[in-house]
Design goal:
Helix 8 packs parallel to helix 9, helix 11 packs parallel to helix 12 and helix 21 packs across helix 23. The protein is built from 26 helices and 37 strands. The longest helix is centred in the first third of the chain and has 23 residues. It folds into five domains: 166 residues, 3-Layer(aba) Sandwich (Aminopeptidase); 286 residues, 3-Layer(aba) Sandwich (Rossmann fold), CATH 3.40.50; 148 residues, Rossmann fold (3-Layer(aba) Sandwich), CATH 3.40.50; 187 residues, ATP-grasp fold, B domain (D-amino Acid Aminotransferase, Chain A, domain 1), CATH 3.30.470; 70 residues, ATP-grasp fold, A domain (Dna Ligase, domain 1, 2-Layer Sandwich). The chain is 35% helix and 22% strand.
Length: 897
């Protein structure tokens, strides 16, 4: 039974335990703790179970639930006895529960899944959420009794990534395992998350049937446009117009409602006014539609009432197993010859290619598709998600990672719904496929971040994108410029660039741009002269490509008057194809933007493919695009590093402290006291140099004697923080008289009766490590040297959480003043390993405790003897959005997008 201090109202469960979750087949269910009013639902659920399933769960026939058991199953304390129900609509489809054993750290766990929903991953989901709830309640271990013949249940425990011990007696397996997350269990959860999210997007992009709800006979209506585009693309599946007033639309039989369609519907494209969408949803839910694509506007973008309708819509859809694209979306398309899906408001299906494109803006979507076609960039898939109420860019990253038809990913982003998850997914995807992103709204800070976010300088923004392997560009033009190189050319082996052309002036422009981007010229630009023949021009190209000093080639060309430029273009293409040197080539050719026919290598479909040479209107744009590709290739060649958690971390203890300190704060931010700072940092092995607070000279002397001379005195007064000249930092006090004099001096300049007395740390270089919120990247770890000069110059480096060991090492070396730590002018180097250890511990603290909204360790004294934290400041508050931690769940529908 629960102790008196843990008993709670059985209806009053922790709200953060409630979640929408994605199953292995891409469908959704709603997960929440059981409440007493679920009793009838539990009875109905039990009645649907087969005799075999009941036998496996209860070790006997158990045909009905006795009233005593029903009360026990439905009334729990949400601490020692916890149960979760998985709901599909109003129906319970799975139940998982644990019960603490003898007030100890262990609990018995069990779950059962409706026969119709077995094999969808519900057992694994329940185990993850039960383990997370148990950890919060102080449990450390699960035990389970499973019939040896119940292979599916045994597999759930075996494949979860925990170290499971097992014993068998009389056909019953006794299983035990610690529930603390392990590297293997986290990897298993991430892998299952990736598979489920990819599957849900696959369902969206590979429908066998599409219903157009709101299909119209009026060419001015979007329902007419949507149906026309589907039919014009020659969709490989079945199209069902839904229109209650007509028997057919555009020659295709129509149905009064989606529920009247005789076959299954995979995708429903909704093109009715916003006020009618809710009634459409009812029919889609009844029909069991897998995905809802809403191109209608009038939701969150229209104001509070629209936002409320949007949240209600997505909540209902998810609860009934359905995912939503939009509202206010342009639509989705798939150019695969076996699909040919154009479920967008754009008139034409793009050429087949190997590039996936995600954008938020429906207004820009049509222009993006037209621009891709004009430049000769084929697409594999395209999603314009509009308001992103449900399906987001992160879902598409999961899909494209394993999509064999996609080699390049392009993103047009206005914001990140879950920045930590984006960084994690992008870093993983970019190791095999380039990710190029336009990020608009860079300086727009959400209100809930305003108190704890800080401006990050532009070079650091670039570094943060590069940390994740994302190629960041500022405009759509730059996005396509860069994409053309990635889509058609190989990655370079290094930064050495050769330039060949027939104009010295244009060649010098290309050379200047290359040097500005840090590219290395193999030699001065080669100028074949305006009178050179196509053969001579091609010979110069061959010579440059043959050189072992060349990693990439820039070709600049001005058409001569005597010979058509197309002859030179064909000569260039033939030379490149013939040599096949696997070196990227960009060109400024014929003033053409994109891939001209003469420079194109065509696929079987007749569209430009690998080996085509992209052309740009100016040499600067050509070299800019190449430079981004060179930087990405260098990132991919660098060691990836490992996500490191230093030894001696106590995350559970830290969470207890955080919850205790935030109790009763009602969503406010809280500046921690010095003692609480020490307690929280101590959970992560970060020691603050010992100190005492003294309010008299005698107390200061006593504190100094307890700490051991020499000591430092510092003012407690907040107004003196950051003023070492006034606050008394680094006063070397080795005697009682010195302490008394220093105390008197500080009292004169301070408005506070109290001063800090701190043991003297070894002399070293003052550094600062911090945590802060950022609207684009989530939690950032920063590093720099302390002092007004570094602050004035903005000499800080940033990395996004989570950090690898490589991230931590490069973070320390990035500030311009960092040479002071490595033996500048013959000084003895500081212990960088100790500093790196602190950085990794700070990153782990941020990862485990998103309630830490900001933190500053300043100063950290870095010396050859180690790194010593002399002062720390921590602010707690509610996390700005769901962090990328804990059991798998979809982004809450009320989270910022």
């Amino acid at each position: 039974m629960a102790s008196e201090d843990t008993k709670r109202d059985p209806y009053d469960f922790p709200r953060e335990w409630e979640a929408d979750v994605l199953l292995s087949d891409g469908g959704t269910v709603h997960l929440r703790p059981v409440i007493p009013s679920d009793a009838d639902g539990l009875v109905a659920f039990h009645g649907r179970l087969s005799e075999r399933t009941r036998y496996f769960r209860y070790f006997g026939a158990y045909p009905r639930i006795p009233q005593r058991d029903l009360e026990r199953f439905s009334v729990v304390d949400h601490h020692d006895r916890v149960a979760f129900v998985a709901l599909l609509g109003d129906d319970i489809v799975a139940v998982g529960r644990y019960e603490r054993l003898e007030q100890g750290p262990s609990a018995e766990v069990a779950f059962v899944v409706d026969d119709a929903h077995q094999g969808r991953g519900l057992g694994s989901i329940l185990l993850e959420h039960l383990a997370a709830a148990a950890s919060e309640s102080g449990l450390r271990r699960f035990v389970a009794e499973v019939l040896a013949e119940n292979a599916a249940m045994v597999r759930v425990f075996r494949d979860a990534g925990y170290q499971v011990s097992r014993e068998i007696e009389e056909g019953v397996l006794h299983l035990e395992f610690d529930i603390d997350p392990t590297e293997e269990s986290l990897a298993v959860a991430r892998s299952r998350e990736q598979a489920a999210e990819a599957r849900s997007v696959h369902n969206l992009l590979h429908p066998k049937s599409v219903a157009v709800i709101g299909a119209s006979t009026d060419p001015t209506k979007i329902g007419y446009v949507a149906l026309t585009n589907l039919l014009s693309a020659d969709f490989a599946g079945t199209v069902y117009p839904v229109n209650p007033e007509h028997k057919s639309v555009r020659g295709v039989r129509a149905y009064p409602s989606v529920v009247d369609i005789p076959e299954d519907v995979d995708l429903a494209l909704v093109a009715v006014p916003a006020e009618a969408v809710e009634s459409v949803l009812d029919g889609a839910l009844a029909k069991g539609v897998k995905t809802l694509l809403i191109v209608s506007g009038g939701f969150a973008e229209a104001g509070p009432h629209g936002l409320h309708a949007e949240l209600r819509l997505v909540g209902e859809a998810r609860a009934h197993g359905m995912r939503v694209v939009g509202p206010n979306a342009l639509g989705v398309l798939n150019t695969d010859a076996s699909v040919r899906l154009n479920a967008t408001l754009a008139p034409r299906l793009p050429a087949r290619g190997r590039t996936g494109f995600f954008c938020q803006s429906g207004a820009l979507g049509t222009a993006i598709l037209a621009d891709a076609e004009a430049r000769g960039l084929g697409l594999s898939t395209f999603v314009s998600a509009g308001n992103r109420a449900d399906v987001s860019g992160n879902d598409l990253l999961q899909y494209w990672e394993t999509d064999p038809a996609t080699d390049l990913v392009l993103l047009y982003l206005e914001s990140f719904g879950n920045p930590r998850k984006f960084a994690r997914l992008a870093r993983r995807l970019a190791r095999t496929k380039p990710v190029v992103a336009v990020k608009s709204g860079r300086h727009a800070v959400r209100p809930q971040l305003a108190a704890t976010s800080a401006e990050v300088d532009e070079s650091s923004v670039q570094a943060l994108f590069e940390q994740a392997g994302v190629v960041r560009v500022d405009t759509l033009a730059q996005l396509f410029d860069t994409a053309l190189v990635f889509a058609h050319q190989p990655l370079p082996a290094g930064p050495r660039v050769a330039i060949v052309g027939n104009s010295s002036a244009i060649g010098l422009l290309a050379a200047d741009t290359a040097r500005a981007h840090g590219l290395r010229l193999t030699a001065d630009p080669v100028d074949v002269g305006p009178q050179a023949s196509p053969e001579e021009f091609a010979a110069a190209v061959r010579e440059a490509l043959n050189s072992p000093e060349t990693d990439a080639l820039v070709v600049v060309f001005v058409p001569p008057l005597a010979i058509p430029g197309t002859a030179y273009a064909r000569a260039l293409r033939e030379a490149v194809v013939e040599m096949d040197k696997n070196k990227p080539i960009v060109s400024t050719f014929l003033a053409v933007e994109g891939v001209p026919d003469e420079l194109a290598v065509l696929s079987e479909d007749g569209v430009p493919t690998r080996g085509s040479v992209p052309s740009y209107p100016s040499p600067e744009r050509a070299v800019n695009a190449l430079a981004r590709v060179v930087r990405y290739a260098a990132w991919r060649q660098r060691p990836q590093g490992n996500l490191v958690r230093p030894a001696g971390l106590h995350a559970e203890q830290a969470q207890v402290i955080v919850r205790e300190l935030l109790a009763g704060e009602d969503g406010k931010t809280t500046l921690l006291s010095d003692d609480d700072v020490v307690r929280l940092l101590g959970c992560y092995g970060i020691d603050v140099v010992p100190f005492r607070v003294a309010s008299s000279a005698d107390e200061a002397v006593k504190s100094a004697e307890e700490l051991g001379f020499p000591v430092t005195l510092k003012a407690v007064d907040e107004r003196l923080r950051g003023r070492p000249d006034l606050a008394g930092v680094r006063l070397d006090l080795s005697s009682v008289d010195g302490v008394r004099r220093a105390y008197a001096d500080l009292r004169e300049i301070s408005h506070d009766d109290e001063v800090y007395v701190q043991r003297m740390a070894p002399k070293g270089i003052s550094c600062v490590v911090g945590l802060q919120d950022d609207p684009s990247f989530g939690t950032l770890v920063s590093f720099g040297l302390s002092g007004l000069v570094s602050t004035l110059l903005g000499d800080r480096a940033y990395r996004a959480v989570p950090l690898t060991d490589v991230d931590a090492a490069t973070l320390l070396r990035e500030p311009r003043t960092s040479p002071l730590l490595t033996g500048y002018r013959g000084d003895e180097p500081a212990d960088l390993a100790a500093l790196q250890d602190i950085v990794l511990r700070v990153a782990a603290l941020a990862e485990d405790n998103p309630e830490v909204r900001s933190m500053t360790l300043d100063p950290i004294l870095a010396s050859p003897d180690g790194a010593f934290v002399a002062n720390a400041r921590i602010v707690l508050g509610p996390p700005p959005s769901r962090p990328d931690t804990g059991p798998r769940r979809l982004r809450p529908i009320n989270a910022p997008t």
